Amino acid sequence: MGKKILFILLLAASGVFSATAETEERALSETDTVAGGHPLDEVVVTGTRNRTDIRHLPMTISIIGRNIIEERNTPYLLPVITSEVPGFFSTSRGIMGYGVSGGSAGNMSIRGISSSSGGLMVLVDGHPQYMGLMGHPVPDAYQSMMAERVEVVRGPASALYGSNAMGGVVNIVTRQMTDNGVETDLNAGYGSFNTFQGEISNRARKGGFSSMASGSYNRTDGHRRNFGFEQYGGYVRLGYDFTDKWELGGDANITHFNASNPGETFSPLIDAVQHVTRGAASLYLKNEHARSSGSVSVFYNWGRHKINDGYSADPDDDDGPKDYLFNSKDNMLGVSAFQNLRLFGGNTITVGFDYFRFGGKAWNAYSNGGKKSLADNSADEIAGYLGMRQTLLRIMTVDAAVRIDHHSNAGTEWVPQAGVSFNLDRGIRLKLMASRGFRYPTIKEMYMFASANPDLEAESLWNYEVSFSQSFPDAGITYGANLFYIDGANMIYTGVINGRPKNVNSGHIDNAGAEMQFRYDINRNWSVNANYSYLHMKNPVPAAPQHKLHAGASFGMGRWSASSTIEYVNGLYTQTGSNVKTEDFVLWNVYGSFKAAEWIDIWVRGENLLASRYEIIAGFPMPKATFMGGFNINL
Asked: Which residues in 519-528 are b (16+ Cβ under 10 Å) and which e?
């Protein structure tokens, strides 16, 4: 009885001590600027399941706002994320288009954990986006037109999001309209290699009804022969606030692309073409009360892939054209429900439930009308999780969560995480975090191709990190640094067992590094920023450079705005194994715009202005200097 009384007294005391902190957090949820327009503390939804002042979260989160996305005037989000987020890197092979299958790009990594094997999760408004068979995201579906902001969790987020969030999470938060009215944007541009980009979007709100609709068309001839790319797609969202506490809504997104792969320069291909359609839809019901908030959502992702892997352009190669095409249909059905409870001052408890069913079919379709089945499988994942955040004595916030997750083939995983944040005087923040991440084997790894192994277990890792940051709002200066160590085991790789290839759980990860960032808003016209990441990998992998540095400057006055960035990459493995290849390069990019009238901006973009010769994927040289120009109409 004495222990129970002591526990109740401690809870009551924590509520008293943290009441002021709760008031401060609510105020920061309403505004993220102070006098002079300098950023203060941003509110995020990733890393928790509710709007939270980033100061009270122990994990490392980077935020890219709509202003940065619009400044770049690029149709894809990955280049923006790569430059703005330390520790994050994505591969490219040309001026536009990532593609799938052999020679594809768009492989993302955070601290050396790669999306190509499903170790990095992409979300759209909190809903997972990955291919049901292969388990990886498809980056050509993640476009700038739909994004209000991007939040990146650098480190495991499996406690809240489950498998595939082992290395981190990229959450694309779609554009919203808070005031009554109608806004229409049209952006179009043309440039090097006969490249065109175009998108149109409309947002509207009247009373409780809100909507957004957008469409895009992008194409290029590419900087190499047989390197064309074409894409078109659209997104629509409808929402209705039928009270000030309840919102019902849904959205749908579809994109289709046709891509050509010329192959490596040392092994060119003919007729390597891909036709891919990706779609997603969701329906949600949200609630927001004084002491609770939550959501129930149902979502469905699907894909249709038709791929010709091509044949060698070498006339001495006798293989010739293939008499079949690779086909696949994949899908993922998800149900997610969570509720946040604020029982007393400074306290938040989150209870959640997830169910996913994913899988699909793959087959070779032969020219004579025959078919050869490669896979027809599915798997289920069901999970529950509990999280707690408590602010104590106004300066310390404790965060803990645990998830129990069951996979129909690979068993059950317990996923804990814990951290503490200190918000001290003079804008100093100190955070410590320990988190476990995991990834279930994919349908491909268990059932497809010669190396399939249905007995695979989940990969797992532990991430430990400490971070320090400080802000001077009156001076417009913020800076921070963090150190991390990743210890991973049971990693899946393809070995040779009894004379044949086989996927096995024998790999190990031992990664460590440091990340730093700095921003100085000099005055209303000028700002500078920089970020740097260092990564040491015991077993190096592609798409994870040892050193990555970004430095940028922005200027705006009257109708003119301009920015410039320098990107330095060192120790990038483009190829591992017996024939190791690495790359070092520097890229100089410039962006500018002129407001010709209240409703139209003229913009230009120049990239790799130093005409650096470099490769991010072995055998795929990147273009030299490229230029784009266009206009943006706002009505």
From this structure: bbbeeeeebe
d(CA 164, CA 521): 37
Pairing state between β 626-634 and 600-607: antiparallel
Would you say how long the chain is, in residues? 635
Q: Which pLDDT belongs to residue 41? A: 57
d(CA 159, CA 66): 28
Distance from C-alpha of 112 to C-alpha of 437, rounded to nearest angstrom: 14
What pTM, to 2 d.p., does this model score? 0.92
Q: Specify the pLDDT at position 46.
A: 84
Residue 48 burial (C-beta neighbours within 10 Å; 0-12, 13-18, 19+): buried
CA dist 85 → 90, 483, 567 (Å)? 11, 15, 12
What is the C-alpha to C-alpha distance for residues 399 and 403, in angstroms, rounded to an integer?
Answer: 14
pLDDT of residue 17: 34
Among 332, 344, 394, residue whose Cα is nearest residue 162: 332
Q: Which residues of the chain fall below pLDDT 70?
A: 1-41, 318
Element (H, E) at 299: strand 292-312
pLDDT at residue 145, rounded to an integer: 87
Q: Is 545 left (phi over 0), alpha (psi -120 to 50) or beta?
A: beta
Query: DSSP alpha helices (H): ranges in 410-506?
Result: 443-447
Q: What is the pLDDT of residue 16?
A: 31
Residue 446: strand, helix, or coil = helix
**pLDDT (0 to 100) of residue 318:** 65
Q: What is the pLDDT of residue 472?
A: 95
Residue 117, pLDDT score: 78
> Vertex 28, ends 352 and 531: CA angle to 5°?
85
